[in-house]
Amino acid sequence: MSEVIQLDNSDCSYITANVSNSHNDVVAFEMKFAKDITVAQLKSKLEILTGGCAGTMKVELYKGDNLMTSLTNNDAKLGFYINCDGLRLHVVDTFTSFGYNENETVEKFELTQDQYEQRTNSVRNFLKQNRLGKYNEEEMRQMEEKRREQAEEVQKRAALCIVESRCQVTVPGNPTRRGTIKYNGELDGKTGIFIGVQYDEPLGKNNGSVGGKAYFVCPPNYGGFVSPLSVEVGDFPPEEFNLDDEL
């Protein structure tokens, strides 16, 4: 099910997102977009960056490797779909899926690396000429430094998440939740470290299991796995709600 990302952002006019492309070897690079442009206008801007066609272009929104939604309404404002930095716009050119019978044999058009390098109208050449993406050494160095600093911060925060410690979890777009740490480590099929938390209230997504594997045990909807960056360890006693005192 598609999920629209609407989170608080200190910059109320622009968002910064990485842009990746499905049909060439260009790595994701960071771009800044006004939130009041339409999806159709966004696609026109992405034409130059990706070499795709706005008319047959599909734009998907990712958080890490997780698909959040597709930007299907060309008349909608970009801010309707995304209102925070750090996400990724993935461009898929669907042109190849139109205009032919799937049962027909179509000769595949291919270029050698040397032939592609010699083309002056290619996406790669455009990026080289304008020093964008992986062809901007300073930009790539900054991105790598940012990734390194984030990885170090994740390791540092994970070291504080001792099992059975009380904690408070803050994830953008969700209410702040309190609970007890029950797991600290990797998850099968996932990249990075995750903290398993048993919440004080049924505000989680599971019972301590993911993909059929149990990492800890708790009642249904009391468990969740989050990034160490979302976890604050401390003296967080369970909150008490006295309904008798409410009017």
Automatic annotation (TrEMBL):
Where does the chain cross the membrane? none
Q: From the UniProt record, which GO molecular function terms apply?
A: alpha-tubulin binding; microtubule plus-end binding
Its chief place of residence is cytoplasm
**Do the record's keywords include Chaperone?**
yes
Q: Where in the cell is it found?
A: Cytoplasm
| Sorted UniProt keywords | Chaperone, Cytoplasm
Superkingdom as given in the UniProt entry: Eukaryota
Provide the CAP-Gly domain boundaries: 185-227
Q: Name one GO biological process term.
A: tubulin complex assembly
Sequence similarity: Belongs to the TBCB family.
Supply the name of the protein. CAP-Gly domain-containing protein
Q: Which organism is it from?
A: Drosophila rubida
Question: Lineage from the top down?
Answer: Eukaryota, Metazoa, Ecdysozoa, Arthropoda, Hexapoda
